[in-house]
Structure formats: structure tokens, C-alpha cells
Write the C-alpha cells for this entry.
Amino acid sequence: MNNIFANMYLLPTIYILGPSILQPSTQYQPPNKIQRKESCEPFVVRTTKHQKKSLDLSIAKMVFSTNSPFIIVENPEFIEVCTKLRPGYTPPSRKEIGGALLDEVYETQKSLVAIPEGSTVSLSLDGWSNVNNEPVVCTSVTTEDGRCFLLDTIDTTGHAHNAEYLREIAENSIRNVRESLHCTVGSVVTDNTGNVKLMRKLLTEKYDSIITVGCSAHLLNLLIHDLSIPNVKAPILNIVKYFRNNHFASSKFKETQKRKLTLPSEVRWNSYIDCLERFLDNWITLFEICESNRERIDKEVQRQVADMSIKRNAEDLLSYMKPVAVALDKLQQTKSSIADATDIWKKLQIEFENAKVPDSVMTSFQKRIRQALTPAHFFSHLIHPLYLGDGLSEHEIGIAMKYATENEGKYPGLTSTIMKFRAQSTPFLKDLFKKENFEGLSAIGWWRAHKGQIHHSVLDFVAGVLGSTSSSAGLERIFSTFGIVHSDIRNRLGIEKAAKLVFILQSLKK
């Protein structure tokens, strides 16, 4: 017992004597359990596979839509920006951008091209040489609402561009339209060179339901070249080149802050007329510069600027070339149809006749208008609900009606339908021809509004004629985009890859 009391003072104070010798005090509080720290998840940016895929595609679309080189994604500054915006994210490599991502974005953009199934499109075909001097032939389609898209791009290296080979390319594109777009080609538009003319003839022999026409814009551009006068063009070009290239003359002209002088370009239609306009607008300024700086300006240039015969001839030339330029601008619009082209050519003819232009000018014009306007053009103008054949001569209306009767066998009821249309009898009620009814409605849409009242084959033929584009200017604009994409700096791009980039660039802009 003594030992117990003796040892009690050695025990911790938390224990007291009681019924069971040692018992914890009620004042004792067991230590709290250790709490787990909060998760670090809110402080960490995780990028899932799905998110990385989405980011990769967004970067790829940015690269394609800005026509940036693929190597930009491997630039340290670009990578740093991506890291700051999304820590832990690594952008795709240039090989991924130019490989799998390019293919995926291309297929996605193709699927987004909304061309209604069963509609009629116009096919354009033309060729050019790329930055590596490789021969390329492209085809494009123009929809009923006037949108133009690149269809096929063919590397024709080793092939002669004869009529048979070009027909084969056109046939493959027609098949592509039918199988991939589920549409029908109603017309084929090309330029007017000899081999392509023969190709159109061969194509018509095999596909008698397809209209083939030459590019009206190309023919108007040829007319401008027909009208140009060498003894006017040469001195004006010499003056413009001098004031653009000579440092002293160029600086003096810039001080005046006048409109810049331009030189004509073979690939830019209407540029010759722009050159004439700028020269005449700035003639007084050029004359004053020459007079004020006789010792510094070339003597021959001074003589040409002061030669009033050159100026007057330029004014005369511009007076009858300007209407051609205005007409050419209209024909180069993607939505311009062969009915529009017919109306433009006929109004230009009236303008020339009223202006009493020289016989040589009228002869050149008559030559080009005969090349441009075919029976399909007159027929299209006749059945257009806005034009109704107004402005056509009796002879031209007769050609249009003959065209209808020649196609009666393939499209039963065509001639009677056109006669009802011209008489504005059932189902073509007079109120439907009011201009206010055409707001937001195309000529094809107007005819399709009579679906069920007209035989479907007749309606398809009419849609093919009215939907035929007047020029291949839409395809020429695609070639311009090719030149931007497949440039001297990016000359290692293959033709197939360049074509995909062109399609993506155009579709993303639209």
C-alpha cells in the first residue's frame, strides 16, 4: 500500500484513484484526427484528348484561313503564347498541320458546302501554270444561287491539252458532281481557244442535255485588245513606266498626291482601260512636272506628254472602251448568267450604234458578239421572267424558238410551255411577272415555283439554261487564290495539298 502511495506521485496527473485503480480523467480530450489537405485539382490545368483535338483543329483552321506557313506552329513565340493561354498544352507539329489536320479540315469544309441535292450546277474548266511551271487544269461549280466552289484539280504533266484529253477531264468532273454532290451539270463554260472549242463540241455530242458556251468576259477582253491602237498605247505606256520607275519623276509625282498611275496586266481584265483613265486624269499634273523640270525629265517623255494628238486619241479611245469596261465588270460577277450576258451584249450594241463609233470598232464588235451569243443565249433571255426577250430582234427570237423545237424530242411539252410563258397564260399568270415579286428570288426559283404544273424534265432543262454562268471568271478568281497559296515562298507545296488549302481558304472566308 505504501508503495502504491509512493508511486502515485510518479504517475501522470491525468490518472486518479478510483474503483479501478487507473481511470482516465473526464477532462482529457483525445487529439483531433489529422485532416486531409484539399485536392490540387483546381490549381492544375488538365487537357483531355478531346480538348487537345479541338484546340489542334482550331489552330489548324487559323493557319489555313490566314494562309500562314505550317512552320508557324513550331515557332517558339507561338508555342509560348499557347502555353500561357493553356499551360501544359502542346500545339501540333507542322507535319500534323499539313497532314492529318489538313485532311480533316478539308473534309469538314466540304461537308459544310450546302448545295441542295438534285439542283443543277454550271461547270467551268480552265488551265494555268503554277509557280513551279507545272500545267494544271481546274474545274469549278457555280450553284443556282451564284456561289462558286473549286471541284477538281488535275496535274496534267506529260499530257497534251488536246480536245480529247480535256473532254476526259470534263467527263470525270461531271461524274464527280453526280456521285459526290448528287447534283446535275446543266452547262459547261470554258474560254474560247481552239482546243477548248473542239472539246465543247465533243462534249455536246456525248451529253446532248448539257449546254456548252464560251466565256463572254473573255470575249469582251479580246474586244478591248481589238480596239487598242498601237500608236496610242505605246507612248502612254512609256510615260507611265517613266513616272513609276524614275526616282526623280516618281518623287515629284508623289508630292502632288494624285491618283497613282497604273500599268495594264495581261491577267487582270480592264487594267488597260484603268491605265488610260489614270493617264488622262493626271495629264495636267504630268505636263506641269515636265515643264517645271525640263533639265531633269527625259526629253522623249516631255515630247510625248506635250503631244496633244496622243491625249486626244486616248480620249477618243476611252470614250468607246469605257462602256466595254462597264459591261466586262458585270459579266465577271459570279451570279451573271447567259441571260444576263445576252442583255449586256445587246445593250452594248445599241450604245455603240447610237454613239456612231468608227466602222473598224463596229466590225470588231460584231465579230465578238457573234462568237458570244448562241441559240442557248437567246433562249435563256427569252425565258427569263425579267427580260422576256425584250431587246431581241425578230430573227433572234426565231432562233430561240427554233432551239426550243429542236429540244422538244428530249423534253416533251417544252415548246408549248414556252408559248404559254410568252403569252402569260396559265400557269404563268400576269401578276407573277411584276418586278416586286422577284425580290430575293432568282429566275430559276421563279420557274421552280411552278413545280407540279410543268413537266419535271422541262423544268430541269429550263433550270440548266437559266443557271448557266456567263463566264469562267469565278474559276479565274480561284486561280488568283492558287497564286496566293502556292507562292514563290511556298513552292514546295504539292498540287493536291495546294488545292485543299485553296478550297479551305475560300470556304472559310465565305
